[in-house]
Amino acid sequence: MEIRGARESELEQVIELSCLAFESDDHERYWQYVQGDSSYRPSQTRVVVVNDKVVSTLRVWERRIRVGESLVTMGGIGGVCTHPNYRGVGYASALMRDTIGYLKATGYDIGALFTIIPDEFYSQLGWVSLPLRSSIVMCNASMEVETPPGWQITDFTPETDLDAVAKLYDIANEQQSGAIARTRAYWDMAPSRLRGILPTVVARRVGETSASELGGYLNYRIGGKVAEVLEVGYMPDNSEETLDVLVSHLFQTHSIEKVSCTFSSMISSQHPFVQHVVGKCNGALTLVEGTPMMFYAVNLPVFLRRLVVGWESRIADAKETFPLLAVKLPALNDQQAVLRHNADGTLQILLGDADAVDFDMN
Question: How far apart are the first and last CA of the chain?
């Protein structure tokens, strides 16, 4: 058995295995995940090779994710699969352990994945589960909704709208924890298009025809009488009016009875768009458990140090005086870290401190 990054000559085997394991005949789609991603390197495809045959594989997607005011490097794990004839002998577990070593060696801060199998498999390998919830709002299809005056909703057109949408996304998510940092090239890459990140409609004021004047956008899909909202973006300085326009469009255009906001899983029901939907239709709000998301702290002290600047800013904004304190955080994946608050308001992440007090989360 050999575990390593894939070679160019093995990518055909990897794609054949993925199609077999996930019961898909769409080879072209899997090829586009590789050939259509400008950030892809063969080493990001991890493989288990037995007798020159790829029997297990996964893909590492390099992305930047926002945590408060900081950007951290995330290794998104996807496409974990093993050939049916080679299951049950531990190849996938060995591959996941090796991948952690790869993430450490290449400088990732955290690993992340969504799982459709019981999360116990990943938990025993050191991954921590983060429950995600979608917001479901029941609505009255016969209710009357008026669009605020002075606005126009049009179908999204990549040629004229995409540059403005990309800029708006950056502004709207500047400090939104959980948001992926998207370069302009990210929007054009095949994997992004395959996953449906482009908006459905855009909102602009009447008479403002330039794409640079866009006030907001909405990405959704309709299934029967259910609207699934995948993403919403708007200028923060005009959020109330823009959200009214987008929500009104959703109800006026489609005779829907239920709105599912899957985009808000990271921030639950408190997202302003969800609150506007509830207010417009006066419907009941229900939180539904989604696909579990799991994290792995690749280098806990380094990860925490990336967050220190944002924490120091919050302490300064509080305009209060806090005592010197050192707190030993719970060990994670055999990694220990101490958060120390100094008398001058600065924070330090240390590997140890004799004066640190234990932080018990139980």
Answer: 41
Answer for the pair 54, 13: CB distance below 8 angstroms, yes or no. yes
Residue 161 lies in a domain: yes
The Cα angle at residue 77 between residues 197 and 269, in degrees rounded to 5: 50
Pairing between strand 151-155 and 201-205?
A: antiparallel
Domain contains 200: yes
Same domain for 98 and 58, yes or no, is yes
Could you give the CA distance from residue 147 to residue 245 in angstroms, rounded to a whole number? Answer: 6
> How many other CB atoms sit within 10 Å of the CB of residue 11?
19
C-alpha separations of 152 from 94, 230, 238, 240, 242 in Å: 54, 21, 15, 16, 11
Distance (Å, whole) CA 105 – CA 5: 13
> Is residue 295 assigned to a domain?
no
Which 3 state secondary structure label does DSSP give 20? helix
pLDDT of 146 > 80? The answer is no
- Indicate whether this model's pTM tops 0.90: no
H helices, E strands: number in the chain: 10, 18
* C-alpha–C-alpha distance, residues 338 and 332, integer Å: 12
Strand partners, 341: 325, 347
Half-sphere exposure of 61 (CA within 13 A, CB side): 20
The identity of residue 286, as a single letter, is: T
Q: Give a three-class secondary structure readout of 193-259.
A: HHCCCCCCEEEEECCCCCHHHCCEEEEEEEECCEEEEEEEEECHHHHHHHHHHHHHHHHHHCCCCEE
CA distance 360 to 308: 21
Query: Per-residue pLDDT tens for 314-355?
Result: 888 888 888 899 999 888 888 989 999 998 889 999 998 878
Tell me which long-range contacts 49-52 makes (C-beta under 8 A, separation of at least 24).
49/1, 49/2, 49/3, 49/4, 49/10, 50/1, 50/2, 50/86, 50/91
Domain span holding position 326: 300-358
